[in-house]
C-alpha cells in the first residue's frame, strides 16, 4: 500500500476484515486482533496509545487508517428517568441520535442505522424527519463505542437496533455491525442481549435468520389487520402481514428464539376487542411476547395529516387490554415511557433538518 491509497476507517471492520487490512499493509494478521481488542474492549481510538504495537506500525496506521466515524456533538439527560440522549455528527455533517435507557437490571443502548427513515410510519418522529442515507458499518458501531466511552462500557448491557431508520433496508451494514458486536473477542456484549427491530421485510428477515448470528428479532407490528396497518405503516402495502408472519415463524424456528411484537397503543385504531383477539391468535402461531408501548407525542416535529391526528390510548384502557392478553397466557410487557421530556422516548428520535 502506498501513500496515495485510500485511508481506511477501521471502526466498522469485522475482525476478519481487520486481519485482511493488516495483511494488505504487509503486517502480520494477528495485529488486527490486537487493534480490534484496543478499539472494542479498551475503547482506545488513538493508535499512539496502543503500546503493544511497534512504533513503526503505529506510524503506518496513522498514515493509512483512521478511527473517527462519528463525532459526539451533545448529550441530554432526562431529569425524571435518567435516560440519556446522544447527538452525533457524521463526516458529511448529518445528525443522528442514540439513547441509553436505564432500567432496574440492565442499561440498553438504542442505536440508529439510517439518517432519517424512508418508511414514513405515522406514529414515528423519524418518519416525519424524512430520509437521507444509510449509515456505514463504522457509523453504526461508533454509536456504541462513543456512548460506551462516555457512559461506561461496563454499564451498557444491551443493544437494540430501534433508533432512526429500518435496519433491514441497510442490511449489509447491519449484518457487519452485528458480526462485530457478537465477535468472541468483543467482551461484555452477548448475542442474546442484542435485538434487531424491523417493520417487516420478509426476505431480509429470512436472510438474517440464515446468517447464523442468532440475535433477537422484534417486529414493529402495531396492528394485526392489513387495512389498519396500511394506514399507519405504508410498508405494509408492499409486505402484507401474512408474508411477514411467515418470515417471523421461519426466524423463530431457525434461531430457536422468540419474536417480540412491538405494539404502540393508538386510540380507536388498534386498541379494540378485535385487536386483543387477533394478538391472541398471533401469539399462538410462534414463540413470542408482546411489548405494549404507550404512544409518545411527536408534536415536536410538527407532523401533518394522520400523524397529527393520532392520540394515545388511555392508561386504564392499556391495562385492560394487557389483562385480556395475559388471561389467555400471552406474555406481555408494558414498556415504561422514558425520556419523553428530552424527546428520547420510543418513536421520538428525530433531527429537524437533514438537508
Topology:
Elements: E1 8-9, H1 15-24, H2 30-41, H3 55-64, E2 65-66, E3 70-77, E4 84-90, E5 95-102, E6 107-110, E7 114-116, H4 125-129, E8 131-134, H5 137-151, E9 158-161, H6 171-181, E10 194-198, H7 202-210, E11 216-220, H8 226-232, H9 241-255, E12 259-265, H10 273-283, E13 288-294, H11 306-309, H12 315-327, E14 332-334
Parallel strand pairs: 1-2, 6-9, 9-10, 10-11, 11-12, 12-13, 13-14
Antiparallel strand pairs: 3-4, 4-5, 5-6, 7-8
Domains (count): 2
> What is the average of the pLDDT values?
91
Largest sheet: 10 strands, mixed
In CATH, the topology of the largest domain is named TIM Barrel
Find the count of extended strands (DSSP E, 2+ residues). Answer: 14
**Radius of gyration from the CA trace?**
21 Å
Helix/strand-derived category reads alpha/beta
Query: What is the CATH H-level superfamily of the largest domain?
Result: Aldolase class I
User: What's the helix count?
Assistant: 12
* Anisotropy-based shape: elongated
The side-by-side strand order for the widest beta sheet comes to: 3-4-5-6-9-10-11-12-13-14
* SSE order: EHHHEEEEEEHEHEHEHEHHEHEHHE
Strand content: 15-25%
Uncertain parts: 339-345
Name of the top-level CATH class of the largest domain: Alpha Beta
Distance linking N and C termini: 36 Å
User: What level of helicity do the residues show?
Assistant: 25-40%
The second-level CATH architecture of the largest domain is Alpha-Beta Barrel
Descriptors for this entry?
alpha/beta; 355 residues; 14 strands; TIM Barrel; DNA polymerase, domain 1; two-stranded parallel ribbon; 10-stranded mixed beta sheet; 19% strand; 2 domains; single chain
Amino acid at each position: 500500500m502506498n501513500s496515495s491509497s485510500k485511508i481506511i476507517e477501521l471502526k466498522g471492520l469485522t475482525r476478519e476484515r481487520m486481519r485482511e487490512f493488516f495483511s494488505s499493509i504487509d503486517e502480520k494478521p494477528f495485529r488486527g486482533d490486537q487493534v480490534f481488542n484496543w478499539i472494542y474492549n479498551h475503547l482506545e481510538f488513538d493508535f499512539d496509545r496502543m503500546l503493544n504495537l511497534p512504533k513503526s506500525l503505529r506510524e503506518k496506521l496513522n498514515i493509512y487508517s483512521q478511527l473517527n466515524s462519528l463525532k459526539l456533538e451533545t448529550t441530554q439527560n432526562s431529569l425524571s428517568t435518567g435516560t440519556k440522549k446522544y447527538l452525533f455528527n457524521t463526516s458529511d455533517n448529518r445528525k443522528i441520535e442514540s439513547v441509553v435507557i436505564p432500567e432496574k437490571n440492565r442499561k440498553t443502548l438504542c442505536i440508529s442505522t439510517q439518517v432519517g427513515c424512508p418508511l414514513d410510519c405515522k406514529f414515528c418522529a423519524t418518519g416525519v424527519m424524512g430520509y437521507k442515507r444509510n449509515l456505514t458499518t463504522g457509523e453504526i458501531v461508533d454509536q456504541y463505542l462513543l456512548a460506551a466511552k462516555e457512559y461506561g462500557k461496563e454499564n451498557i448491557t444491551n443493544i437494540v437496533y430501534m433508533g432512526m431508520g429500518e435496519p433491514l433496508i441497510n442490511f449489509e451494514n447491519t449484518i457487519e455491525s452485528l458480526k462485530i458486536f457478537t465477535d468472541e473477542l468483543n467482551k461484555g456484549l452477548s448475542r442474546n442481549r442484542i435485538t434487531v427491530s424491523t417493520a417487516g421485510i420478509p426476505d431480509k428477515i429470512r436472510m438474517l435468520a440464515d446468517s447464523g448470528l442468532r440475535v433477537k428479532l422484534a417486529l414493529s407490528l402495531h396492528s394485526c389487520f392489513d387495512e389498519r396497518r396500511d394506514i399507519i405503516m405504508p410498508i405494509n402495502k408492499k409486505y402484507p402481514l401474512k408474508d411477514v408472519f411467515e418470515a417471523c415463524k421461519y426466524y423463530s424456528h431457525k434461531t430457536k428464539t422468540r419474536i417480540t411484537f412491538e405494539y404502540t397503543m393508538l386510540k380507536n385504531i388498534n386498541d379494540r376487542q378485535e385487536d386483543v383477539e387477533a394478538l391472541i391468535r398471533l401469539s399462538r402461531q410462534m414463540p413470542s411476547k408482546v411489548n405494549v408501548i404507550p404512544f409518545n407525542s411527536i408534536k415536536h416535529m410538527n407532523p401533518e395529516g394522520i400523524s397529527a391526528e393520532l392520540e394515545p390510548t388511555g392508561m386504564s384502557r392499556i391495562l385492560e387490554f394487557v389483562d385480556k392478553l395475559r388471561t389467555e397466557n400471552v406474555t406481555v410487557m408494558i414498556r415504561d415511557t422514558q425520556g419523553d421530556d428530552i424527546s428520547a422516548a420510543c418513536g421520538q428520535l428525530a433531527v429537524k433538518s437533514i438537508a
